[in-house]
Amino acid sequence: MSSESQTIAGEAAPDSASVALIRSGEVLLIKRAYAPYRHLWTLPGGRAEAGETAEDCAIREVREELGLTVSHLRHVETQVLASASGGWRLAVFASTRFEGALAASDEIADHRWVPLAQAAAMRTTARLHQLLLRAFARVGAQ
């Protein structure tokens, strides 16, 4: 596990992860087909499996949801989130290094590459645009 996503002593480790896949000034956003966040644009990701690190979870979720292999993850932040079904700690990563043919799973209603400026006008999960600003800065993307 990289030292970038390790938690401060006493804090719970992340139990979910998402990834901002960035290329040429655009980010790949997905529209969720199921709860939580059904019909909202967001980043690919999901819950960790038993014994899985946040990085491993992020890599697996991108592969399962999009058919892409991602590498060189950069930790952006860890968020504490809550919904009617409970709470979780989401490790958010960014990467410009991924490969494969994009093949969306049934968990995804839609997907598209979006310029950073356009993301602010979309119906997204809370504060996604601010998160994307930090993700782009983390990987040095414009």
Describe this structure in words.
The protein has 142 residues and is an alpha+beta fold. The chain has a single domain, classed as Nucleoside Triphosphate Pyrophosphohydrolase (Alpha-Beta Complex). The chain is 20% helix and 38% strand. It is built from 3 helices and 9 strands, in the order E-E-E-E-H-E-E-E-E-E-H-H. It has helices spanning 54-66, 116-119, 128-139, and strands at 16-23, 26-32, 41-42, 45-47, 69-71, 74-83, 86-95, 97-99, 108-115. The strands form 2 sheets. Strands 1, 2, 3, 4, 6, 7 and 9 form a 7-stranded mixed beta sheet that branches. The protein has a two-stranded antiparallel ribbon with strand order 5-8. Strand 2 (26-32) and strand 3 form a beta hairpin. The protein starts with 15 loop residues before the first strand and ends with a helix. The model is unreliable at 1-9 (pLDDT under 50).
Q: What is the topological layout?
A:
Elements: E1 16-23, E2 26-32, E3 41-42, E4 45-47, H1 54-66, E5 69-71, E6 74-83, E7 86-95, E8 97-99, E9 108-115, H2 116-119, H3 128-139
Parallel strand pairs: 1-7
Antiparallel strand pairs: 1-2, 1-4, 2-3, 2-9, 5-8, 6-7
